[in-house]
User: Which sequence fits this backbone?
């Protein structure tokens, strides 16, 4: 039996669409840059889409809404920052308090690298929380709590190794650190200098009970 021969179509080859996951990841990265620099309320989708070269009409193919997009960006930043914290605070080649110092030094270098245009996304969003979708509030609270837990564990290790007093409330100290740290980051962006980070950290270490 002779099968009919199908002639190849003339013209351009079929257009291969981008991989959905790759494009979604690019949108999140672009959104992270934009939101870290400008915040959520004042950030439009157009600039983010233009950078990734995605048509505006395609945005909702990847995210159900701007709120869902913001949640994804926050989650991505939280994972990145948690890994950064763990790399410093769990590095047992250094004493516990030195690990915190290493985190501060890495943060200073990051701000310099980005010319003080970017701060902490979670801290920035916390300052405009009344303008954000209500779903963001608990997401930000949970992230701050996870950071506090990581630092509290490091401080408890410092207790065990005799760097700070066994009577110190590590949970409270960790909460205090992050409240002050976000203010120091904001001031560093304002003055375009890492001195506020240095001053805050030095005061925090000096005030630890010995």
Assistant:
């Amino acid at each position: 039996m002779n099968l009919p021969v199908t002639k190849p179509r003339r013209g351009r080859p079929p257009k291969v669409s981008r991989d959905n996951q790759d494009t979604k990841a690019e949108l999140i990265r672009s959104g992270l840059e934009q939101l870290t620099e400008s915040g959520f309320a004042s950030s439009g989708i157009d600039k983010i889409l233009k950078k990734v070269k995605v048509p505006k009409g395609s945005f909702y193919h990847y995210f159900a809404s701007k709120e869902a997009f913001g949640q994804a960006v926050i989650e991505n930043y939280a994972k990145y920052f948690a890994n950064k914290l763990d790399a410093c605070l769990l590095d047992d080649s250094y004493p516990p308090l030195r690990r915190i110092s290493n985190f501060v030094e890495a943060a200073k270098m990051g701000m310099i690298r980005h010319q003080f245009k970017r701060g902490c996304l979670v801290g920035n969003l916390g300052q405009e929380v009344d303008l954000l979708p209500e779903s963001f509030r608990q997401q930000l609270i949970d992230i701050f709590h996870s950071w506090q837990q990581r630092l509290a564990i490091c401080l408890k290790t410092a207790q065990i190794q005799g760097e700070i007093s066994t009577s110190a409330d590590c949970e409270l100290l960790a909460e205090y650190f992050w409240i002050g740290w976000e203010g120091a980051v904001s001031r560093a962006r304002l003055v375009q200098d890492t001195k506020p980070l240095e001053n805050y950290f030095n005061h925090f270490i000096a005030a630890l009970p010995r």
Q: What stands out?
A: The chain has a mean pLDDT of 88. The CA atoms of residues 82 and 147 lie 7 Å apart.
